[in-house]
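Q: Got one fold?
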Amino acid sequence: MNRSQICSVQPKKSLGKIESFLKGLLNEVSVEEALCDKNTLIDVRTAHEYAKGSIPDAFNCPLFDNLERSEIGVIYRKIGKNAAVEKGLEFFKPRIEKFLSSIEDLKSKQLVVFCARGGMRSASLVRLLQHYGFQASQLKGGYKKYRNYVIEKLREPVPPLIVIHGQTGVGKTLLLKKLPDHLDLEEFAGHRSSLFGAINKIPQTQKNFEALLAKKILELPNKKPVFIEGESRKVGKVFIPQTLAEAMKYGTLVLMQASLETRIRRIVDEYKIIDEHTFLQADSILQSMQQLLGKKKSEQLRQWLKKGDFEKLVQVLLEEYYDPRYQYAMRMNEYAFELSAENLNIAAEKLVSFKSSLINVRENIQKTPQNIKLN
């Protein structure tokens, strides 16, 4: 059962009075308990709230749409709580049977329901679900509590980092996906961290980026080195949390190198111009580069784009835009290890070996005199 199916099934049975589910006992769980793999998360906030940020893998099954929630909020502020509740019931009653039928397949699952702050939206639904035989709990404090949890987790120290650097197109992200224990910031951001980085991607909001990042960090070993791609503080429109940014700055730096031909080929393969939308995206970016490259050069690049001469376009962008800026930005870096990225499988093997050597060195350093046996 997928997210799009959650609210699309026809009713199977009738209900009693909805009002009876507005008060009473209910099961509550903490954020840590809610995030257990056994749980299925249901976000009952509006689609607008959900789009701004939610818990990873949560289903969105809103009780109200954006206009309805806004109307309820106005009534609450101008008239009072009871009038707002009555309006909410008026909106909710016609849908509740369809909602229950739509999640019938989840009856064997442990459901955790949440709204903005652990209020009436999620509480009333949890009571309703419990009444009809579902295993349902309310996330105590709602999404706000979860959001604070993410912020706190991202302030905690991260594992040691092996930071992979290299010029644009060298294959850093491709290599990262071949490595164990890695953080792919561009995947979490839905952006490749370049001017053209949103092409064929769906950029994430800051809240969703941080939620995905925190989730992955919690899955990683907390003492062994983790691979990560070198990035600026900003990836697309989202910012890397301060603690992680500092850890990247002082991590073990690795430099990947590849020929210009290899880099061009990888970029053309990655940034595919496949339809009118992606063409217009790329063309708009090239127009915006007039001040950087000059009008004549910018127009030449646009002509190559129209003709499909992507190799020529990419070569000029690398040689006249990306490479000079990268070399200047990275001029002070000192690398602990340099390797060829022409063959990414071989490069991955070398990096795994390099990581093992780092672990061995650190374990030897951490040995105390008591561990050394004297003959």
Summary: The radius of gyration is 26 Å. Residues 1-16 have pLDDT under 50 and may be disordered.
